[in-house]
Amino acid sequence: MKQFLIFFTAALALSAPACEKRNGPTPPADRVLPAAGVAQKGLNYHIARTFDLGGDGGWDYIVPQPSQHRVYIGRTNRVMVVDTNDGKLIGEVTGIKGAHGTAIAESSGHGFATSGNDQSIVMFDLNTFKELARIPAAEDADAIIYDAPTNRVFSLNGDAHSSTVVDAASGKLVTNVALGGKPEYGASGGDGKVYANLTDTSEVVEIDAKNAAVTRRWPTAPCRQPVSMAIDTKNHRLFSGCRSGVLAVSDYRAGKTITTVPIGTGVDGAGYDATSRDVFATNVDGTLNVIHQDSADMYHLVGSVTTPIGSRNMGLDPSTHRIYVAAAAFAAPPAPPAAAPQGRAGRAGRATVVPGTFRLLVIER
User: Fold this and answer.
1) Residue 63, SS3?
2) Which of 112, 159, 260, 357 can bridge 140 by disulfide, Cβ–Cβ 3.0-4.6 Å?
3) Residues sharing a CB contact under 8 Å with residue 307, sequence separation 6 or more, in sequence order
4) SS3 sequence, 222-256?
């Protein structure tokens, strides 16, 4: 998720001149949230509700728990647990040092949250949200995926190029699996296989969940830098959101990429609704793309819902078909000192979330 800050800063910088040209001077970034909710003609999706949650810090993955009407959101030093019926904060998993992903193992009553800065996975109680154990992972522990057939969780450790495998019942470390590249998000096939995007090598990697070993990999070309992932288990398709501006569709039985569809800039979230056969991509440029699955191998872009700039993460509840997208106001990145040298050292600073402005958008048909 480190790459997001680069994409967001660039998007913020690019959007300011355009706003000035259309509407006069750009409002201060710490005063307003960009207008959102506009959908293209013929697109049924819209922002139906907004939950104002506030709090400090950025965010990362959004993970729904449909059976309990909850959504889990990684927020820098904690995981927020939100009731999706009324948007109220139920509780928080605290003590996280660099919060990213959450995995829910309902059969064991355990949740798992990655704590990237101290290279660990926090196991917590799904009723009390109290920490039960802290399991060593690896550098840049980021996304984390639950695999029901094996009752294991798999953290995807970006800088370590590995996956840490943990038994969801006992919380015991099983092993670390070398992936041969930098993983971002992934998905469980529900058949004993786990899949992950490798963003630096532009590949999808397949992991045998029981044997904790890599079994296959294939390129996502022409997609470059695949990050977000969703899965269609009926048709055996993976959807990889790529930073090169496309969504790549893979046949994971055949182990090959079959087509791509154009999407927005700075993708970081993806979802697939098996009922509507719609695929979604959320992007830092302020778009939620809706792509319809005409058949297992054919797709077309239906349109986009306008969201606030920076709203790049989403979670899909398959039972209600609602999409949850995080948003906030951002303070403009500070300009580099006048005497700063050219190159990396002379670049502007990073945009930061304005405290108290964090909210969750509910998008539905």
Assistant:
1) strand
2) 159
3) 36, 37, 47, 282, 286, 287, 288, 325, 327, 361
4) CCCCEEEEEEECCCCEEEEEECCCEEEEEECCCCE
Phi and psi torsions of 238, nearest 5°: -110, 145
- Paired tokens of 335: 């300009």
CB count, 10 Å around CB of 83?
Answer: 15
- pTM for the model: 0.89
Report the run of H or E that residue 83 belongs to, with start and end: strand 76-83
Q: Which residues of the chain have pLDDT under 50?
A: 3-7, 10, 13-35, 345-346
Q: What angle do CA 166, 141, 283 make, to 5 degrees?
A: 120
- 218: Cβ contacts below 8 Å, ≥ 6 apart: 203, 204, 250, 255, 256, 257
For residues 290 and 129, give the distance between their C-alpha atoms in angstroms, rounded to a whole number.
Answer: 34
pLDDT in tens, 30-62: 333 444 555 555 689 999 999 999 999 999 999
CB 280 within 8 A of CB 263: no
The number of beta carbons lying within 10 Å of the beta carbon of residue 162 is 24
What is the distance between the alpha carbons of residues 287 and 267, in angstroms, rounded to a whole number?
A: 9
DSSP single-letter state for residue 43: -
